[in-house]
């Protein structure tokens, strides 16, 4: 069995395809069930964020599983498999492990070192566990990934400065105006990304912040954190007439503001420009809005370009984090190998112990040994067998997970009929 990851991200696919491939939280359970029921997949975890959609699976047959995951991703995006194939990347076994650990450490994000991915990976794993699509292999893998992400941030400065997508979004808005002081901002959404934007806005110092969300209590809670105001989602168009910046990050599966509605807002603004920063995936704002005079629309493509300019500040930490990823991948391989070979070693030792006990009992009865003599014989043979099995056991453990280890394991199964 192999660990395989197949997916697309901000570097491999254009934004419109990445947007189509995004799997919402509402659809995640159904998607996990559909993927895990494919013939050649025994475990599955789906990671879908603003930067990527990836399927991590335990594959019985690599090529067959690849086709199943590719078809699943194509069906989810409502595109033909051949239209998706060129944008997909695939890693298996050690490379798949290193890829996930790099993602968890922030090395593979649009914003180098961003911290939000850690929570997203943990949430994805928890969803798979809840749906029982993540088994012993992927549970072990994702537990190590979370630990790797924590270690990367504790032992390096990879997360220093711009450490999240939401933080970068606020910095983009700040750079656009030169300063947000005296500006009015409307944040739409109340999830992790929106919360991150609120935290970053608190430091940026806008004059006032409005928060809109379909769940009023969440909007109230976020607005209170920045001494702002919450508004009903249905008042969005009305409030847009009075703000300088609109920042969106909802979980909506369709645009919440189209070309017509924004054009109507601009017509009421008497020439006042509007900056829109949309970091939702799928996008909250119709891309055609960028064509309206007086509107500047920034999305994840713009954020990736913006973040690339700041990567040099943290580039020196990449080597340190890559070392952590390598060492954690080695540790994972060792733990996984030990777990896989442990049942075989236990079976081998159990079979030999059963033979030893049977022969000791038979010899003791035939020789008429007393209980004390039988105990001495038992102790002697137990010690002898332990010494005889020491080298084979050590060899199995040391070679586990390699081609040599597979050959040794097959030999043991044949020799002892296990």
Runs in which pLDDT lies below 50 for 5 or more consecutive residues are none
Q: What structural class should be given to the helix and strand makeup?
A: alpha/beta
Amino- and carboxy-terminal Cα gap: 19 Å
SSE sequence, one letter per element: EHHEEHHEHHHHEHEHEHEHEEHHHHH
CATH class of the largest domain reads: Alpha Beta
Q: CATH superfamily membership of the largest domain, which one?
A: Glutamyl-tRNA reductase, N-terminal domain
CATH topology of the largest domain: Beta Polymerase, domain 2
* Total E-strand runs: 10
The DSSP helix count reads 17
Give the % helix: 55-70%
Q: What best-fitting shape do the alpha-carbon axes yield?
A: elongated
User: What is the C-alpha radius of gyration, as a whole number of Å?
Assistant: 28 Å
Assigned CATH architecture of the largest domain = 2-Layer Sandwich
Number of domains: 3
Notes on the protein architecture:
- This protein is α/β, with parallel strands linked by helices and 418 residues long.
- The protein has three domains: 2-158, Glutamyl-tRNA reductase, N-terminal domain (Beta Polymerase, domain 2, 2-Layer Sandwich); 165-310, 3-Layer(aba) Sandwich (Rossmann fold); 342-382 and 404-418, no CATH class.
- It has 17 helices and ten strands.
- The strands form two sheets. It has a six-stranded parallel sheet.
């Amino acid at each position: 069995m192999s660990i395989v990851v197949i997916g697309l991200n901000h570097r491999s696919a254009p934004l419109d395809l990445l947007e189509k491939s995004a799997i919402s939280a509402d659809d995640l359970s159904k998607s996990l069930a559909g993927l895990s029921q494919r013939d050649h997949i025994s475990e599955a975890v789906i990671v879908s964020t603003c930067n990527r959609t990836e399927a991590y699976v335990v594959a019985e047959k690599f090529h067959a599983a690849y086709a199943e995951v590719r078809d699943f991703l194509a069906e989810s995006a409502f595109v033909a498999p051949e239209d998706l194939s060129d944008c997909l990347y695939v890693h298996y076994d050690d490379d798949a492990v290193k890829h996930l650990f790099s993602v968890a450490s922030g090395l593979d994000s649009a914003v180098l070192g961003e911290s939000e991915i850690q929570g997203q990976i943990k949430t994805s794993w928890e969803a798979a566990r809840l749906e029982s699509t993540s088994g012993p292999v992927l549970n072990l893998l994702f537990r190590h990934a979370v630990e790797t992400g924590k270690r990367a941030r504790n032992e390096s400065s990879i997360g220093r400065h711009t450490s999240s997508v939401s933080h970068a979004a606020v910095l983009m808005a700040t750079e656009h105006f030169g300063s947000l002081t005296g500006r009015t901002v409307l944040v739409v959404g109340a999830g992790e990304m929106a919360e991150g934007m609120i935290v970053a806005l608190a430091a940026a110092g806008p004059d006032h912040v409005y928060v809109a969300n379909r769940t009023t209590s969440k909007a109230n809670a976020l607005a209170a954190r920045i001494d702002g105001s919450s508004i009903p989602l249905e008042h969005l168009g009305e409030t847009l007439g009075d703000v300088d910046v609109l920042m969106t990050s909802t979980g909506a599966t369709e645009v919440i503001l189209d070309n017509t509605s924004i054009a109507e807002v601009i017509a009421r603004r008497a020439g006042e420009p509007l900056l829109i920063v949309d970091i939702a995936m799928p996008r909250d704002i119709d891309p055609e809005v960028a064509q309206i005079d007086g509107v500047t629309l920034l999305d994840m493509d713009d954020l990736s370009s913006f973040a690339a300019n700041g990567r040099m500040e943290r580039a020196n930490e990449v080597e340190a984090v890559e070392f952590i990823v390598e060492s954690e991948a080695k540790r994972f391989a060792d733990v996984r190998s030990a777990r896989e070979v442990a049942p075989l070693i236990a079976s081998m030792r159990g079979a030999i112990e059963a033979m030893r006990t049977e022969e000791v009992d038979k010899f003791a009865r035939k020789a008429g040994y007393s209980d004390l003599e039988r105990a001495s014989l038992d102790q002697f043979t137990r010690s002898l067998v332990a010494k005889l099995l020491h080298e084979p056991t050590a060899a199995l453990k040391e070679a586990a997970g390699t081609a040599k280890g597979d050959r040794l394991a097959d030999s043991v199964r044949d020799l002892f009929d296990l």
